[in-house]
Amino acid sequence: MTSSIQTQVLDKIKEYSTIIIHRHVFPDPDALGSQCGLKKIIKESFPSKNVYVVGEEVEELKFIHRMDSISDDVYKNALVIVCDTANLPRICDKRFELASFLIKIDHHPDLEPYGNLSWVDTSYSSTSEMIMDLFTKHKHILQLNSEAARLLYIGIVGDTGRFLYRGTTTQTMKYTAELMTFDFNPQLIFSTLYKKDNNTARLQGTLLLNYERSKNGVAHFRMTRNVLEQFGVDRNTAGNLINTLADIEGNKVWVLFIEYPDSIRVRISSAGTVINNVAYRFNGGGHPLASGATVYSWEEADALIQALDATCKEAHKN
Ligand SMILES: [Mn+2]
């Protein structure tokens, strides 16, 4: 199955002389790694093709690769490939609609299919691993170089949390080993990707000193407007500290509340208790062990903690 869909993707790549690659808004390392890694592989294999990567850039991830800026008429007769993006509203740069042919390549659950051709497979750790698989199965046609290898490596590292998460398979490790035979510096990638600034480190200290825990193991902390201003940390960075509360004995579920002007966004993670049903009840959803939600008062935040506490009690009652 996979090989025939891969053949169809490859046939389209061969057919078009202009290829534009998109990915999701608020890019992460896998979105950029798969997008730009695929560009490098196509350019290395078919040097005469015009291949572009587009989308908004974020400051911290500019070191991965920079975007191309192209005019609308480049889309005329172009193939557009969208990497790592589950649904249409999340595609960055709406000009994908101008495509003459649209391909989706993704490893998220296919809840909202799109594209003229769609290769979606949740068994991969990352979209970058899918691109590596495409290359591996078509080495007679496709070429990898050290730039592409670095990009795919970054994507796999990002989505597996440095090979910690359960999506990491023997194939992931095999492909990673092969990528590492190319000439790039993994230590430099780690130190850049996981460096935090001094303010964030101190906020993390406060979080560890002051988080609270409910009777049945729901750890939680409130990133109030005051806290964020005191430490000078933006909301997105603060929310990304969620896993500071992981791997602490007794924490079954951990929660961060991040106060916005008109709402309180919630990040929820779990060591094993399924929590996305609770997230769903509070204007959210997501993966069974990692979800988001939104509440509109601190009373509602308390109700969310109580609901998670009841879920933990139920799950661990024997
Ligand atoms: Mn991904």
From TrEMBL:
GO terms for molecular function: nucleic acid binding. Residues 230-314 form the DHHA1 domain. Residues 19-156 form the DDH domain. It comes from the Bacteria. InterPro entries: DDH_dom, DHH_sf, DHHA1_dom, Oligoribo/pAp-PDE_c-di-AMP_PDE. This is Bifunctional oligoribonuclease/PAP phosphatase NrnA.
